[in-house]
Design goal:
The protein folds into two domains: 56-91; 94-238, no CATH class. Helices cover 70% and strands 7% of the residues. The chain has eight helices and four strands, in the order H-H-H-E-E-E-E-H-H-H-H-H. Helix 3 runs antiparallel to helix 5, helix 3 crosses helix 7 and helix 5 (158-178) runs antiparallel to helix 6 (182-200).
């Protein structure tokens, strides 16, 4: 008899326990205080000044604005003047400037080199200007004598220096005139200028040679310009 009625009592006990847990949960929810809502940040309001302070600030702002406007107008006038001057200078093409610099330096070294060599002479007559060109068949004996006795000791043997200077002063100026390998020719003449200033004529450094060096450095830095064989080679190479 006991075994027959036992299974019927277990569902009743489970139902009663669930009802008790539900009542306990309701009591806990009623006792727990509600969570407060997050506080919202108050909107920013600018500080309020007295009328006198506000008037002073407005006056200061107006003075600053007028000063900035005057500075802008003054700067714009100066800037426009400078820009106009720069634009006018930019119309001078570097091709003509480089050509003039090349001819000046070529004349200086070429005329000096003509006194060091001997060979066939070719007369050149251009309007009222006449010049006799000496081709470098050989180096004059006077040139060897000058490098042996007149010039101070050089870092190379006198015979080699005589040949190198004589032929360099014939070839490098022609390269400058034609604008062929202009940077290499200018570097060669710049080295010669330095050797002359250091060993032969140090007293002429600040009177003559510094200007030669400045002109040659421009040609080394900027090149021969558009009126040159270098530029023609560059155009052909880019095709």
């Amino acid at each position: 008899m006991t075994d027959t009625f036992a299974p019927a009592q277990r569902p009743v006990d489970n139902i009663a326990g669930a009802a008790a847990m539900a009542r306990l949960a309701d009591r806990l929810m009623a006792v727990t205080p509600p969570r407060p809502a997050p506080a919202q940040a108050a909107p920013y309001s600018p500080p309020q000044f007295s009328p006198a302070v506000t008037a002073a600030l407005n006056t200061s702002a107006q003075i600053s604005a007028r000063a900035a406007e005057r500075a802008r107008r003054s700067r714009s006038v100066i800037g426009m003047t400078v820009d106009s001057f720069v634009a006018a200078c930019s119309y001078i093409p570097y091709a003509l400037v480089a050509l003039g610099l090349r001819l000046v330096m070529a004349r200086v070294f070429f005329l000096d080199g003509q006194t060091r060599i001997a060979g066939p002479q070719v007369p050149l007559n251009v309007q009222d200007y006449s010049f006799t060109l000496t081709l470098p068949a050989q180096v004059r004996p006077e040139t060897f004598g000058a490098f042996l006795s007149q010039y101070p000791p050089l870092p190379v043997p006198p015979a080699i220096a005589a040949y190198a200077v004589s032929y360099a002063e014939f070839i490098l100026p022609i390269m400058l005139v034609l604008g062929f390998a202009t940077r290499f020719a200018a570097i060669g003449l710049l080295i010669m200028t330095g050797v002359i200033s250091f060993y032969v004529m140090p007293q002429a450094l600040w009177s003559v040679h510094v200007y030669w060096a400045a002109i040659l450095l421009v040609l080394v830095s900027k090149g021969a310009g558009a009126l040159s064989i270098d530029n023609l080679i560059r155009i052909i190479a880019r095709r």
